[in-house]
Design goal:
Strand content: 15-25%
Helix content: 40-55%
CATH architecture of the largest domain: Alpha-Beta Complex
Order of helices and strands: HEHEEHEEHHHEHHHHEHHHEEHEEHHEEH
Number of strands: 13
CATH class of the largest domain: Alpha Beta
Structural class: alpha/beta
Distance between the termini: 60 Å
Strand order of the largest sheet: 8-9-10-11-13-12
Number of helices: 17
Largest sheet: 6 strands, mixed
Bound molecules: manganese (II) ion
Length: 449
């Protein structure tokens, strides 16, 4: 191993050393990873790594503690585990946990065990919510294990991007890993719009993140725009000249400015792309593919494509295209479906799994910027709620996670999450009371009520 690759705290380095000796001492591993894009990314980095050393592995995806803990080989948990350290301590097998999630009720009671390694960046002064993800922790382990593993950079950083750690640029450990990958030639840079498709017309038809109101998915409008700018609709995005690129960019920026979308969101439609010279895949596209796989209950497909399965890659692409098409259809009608109270806006959405993303994209690119949005899905007995705010609201003191937690609990439901993105569940006959209370609380905080 290469020691002191990065400026990581000594006690963290010791944990990596212990992990590496476990990797060296065994030739079969159970990899258990989180059921989301960052989890797939972490699982991919470690699966690819152990495969290189002819070690056996079996990778599974979970979103809560496994009902049956596998026996017979050391277990490596990635992107999940910090909430279960007490139960993990009781597992007979050797266990390594690489998880960046912060656990509020601290785990200081967890003893140091000979055959367990718990790697949590928060224990070492590293902000796991911003500076390192499951994928990049796995990458750090892979390159610490063997300095030739830098080609894993694409897969690791995709996880960090999926966990929204690339917004405004990577920072901390993520940034160190990115810069080293660029230095070593395992990633390359280009700048451009964060839209992609077989042609420029196709990319705009499918642009849902970023979403351009009145343009995305509007064939006639797109044709007209491209004609006016004298851009061949069938041309590849990379091949149009700089001048035309600039004009197209300003036009898209304008479509968002008209909606009072904040500058930092508008700036995020264009930026640096990081491409792997090994397979031409870029971080931005890979993480979006992995997101689509996870959201369609196909994390295994995401892992397969990372392991180099071309068929899996095309299938994931199809799933993502289908998803983008549906999301655009939903975004197009979102404004008509929005209902408003004095201080909040909300909408009903049939598909539970879609409403969070829809609320998030709507809040970013489309909806009124002075009230948070709630997406509601009616289930058998409950209403499931996804709440999204803007950065600006959070800066004014709004904490949707705290509100969802407190207001739902008061009504016998439960909720929680982050300041900017949160969720709750309440019984159907409590939803009116929940919305009313939310409206009042938001009004108090944002002072518009
Ligand atoms: Mn994660």
């Amino acid at each position: 191993m290469e020691g002191n690759l990065f400026d990581i705290p000594g006690d963290l380095e010791k944990k990596f050393e212990k992990t590496i000796s476990i990797l060296d001492d065994h030739d079969r591993f159970r990899l258990i990873t989180h059921y989301d894009a960052d989890g797939i990314s972490a699982g991919a980095v470690l699966s690819r790594t152990v495969m290189k050393y002819q070690k056996g592995f079996h990778t599974t995806f979970i979103d809560s503690f496994p009902e049956k803990v596998p026996k017979g080989s050391p277990i490596i948990f990635t992107d999940i585990g910090n909430s279960y350290l007490d139960r993990i301590s009781e597992i007979e097998e050797t266990v390594i946990v690489l998880d960046h999630h912060e656990v509020r009720d601290n785990n200081s009671s967890i003893p140091d065990l000979e055959d367990k390694v718990f790697i949590n960046p928060h224990d070492h002064g590293i902000d796991g919510s911003q500076e390192v993800s499951g994928g990049t922790l796995a990458l750090l382990l892979a390159i610490t294990y063997d300095n030739t593993n830098w080609e894993e950079a694409l897969y690791g950083l995709a996880g960090a991007a999926a966990d929204k750690q690339a917004i405004g640029g990577f920072t901390g450990l993520n940034l160190q890993l990115l810069e080293a990958s660029l230095d070593k030639g395992h990633l390359e840079k280009r700048t451009g719009l964060f839209i992609d498709g077989e042609s420029i017309q196709n990319a705009l038809m499918k642009a849902c993140d970023p979403y351009f109101p009145g343009i995305s998915g509007e064939k006639k409008k797109i044709k007209k725009i491209l004609e006016d700018l004298e851009i061949d609709p069938d041309a590849k995005l990379e091949s149009i000249g700089l001048e035309k690129k600039r004009k197209l960019n300003s036009l898209l920026v304008l479509s968002l400015l008209k909606r009072d979308i904040p500058v930092d969101v508008i700036e995020s439609i264009y930026g640096t792309h990081y491409i792997s010279p090994h397979d031409g895949l870029e971080v931005d596209i890979l993480y979006k593919l992995l997101n689509s796989c996870a959201r369609n209950d196909r994390p295994g497909l995401g892992l397969s494509l990372c392991l180099g399965d071309n068929k899996a890659f095309y299938e994931a692409k199809e799933i993502r295209d289908r998803y983008r098409k549906q999301m655009i259809e939903n975004l197009k009608t979102l404004e008509e479906r929005i209902e408003k109270k004095e201080n909040i806006q909300y909408f009903y959405e049939e598909k539970k799994t879609r409403k969070g993303e829809l609320a998030g994209l709507g809040m970013l690119y489309l909806l009124e910027q002075d009230m948070p949005v709630l997406g509601l899905t009616e289930l058998d007995e409950d209403v499931d709620i996804s709440a999204r705010a803007t950065k600006n609201m959070v800066e004014q003191g709004l904490d949707m996670g705290e509100l969802c937690d407190r207001l739902a609990e008061r009504l016998g439901g439960d909720g929680g999450g982050h300041d900017i993105a949160a969720g709750a569940t309440v019984e159907k006959d409590k939803i009116d009371a929940f919305l009313k209370a939310m409206d009042e609380e938001v009004g108090k905080l944002l002072g518009s009520g």
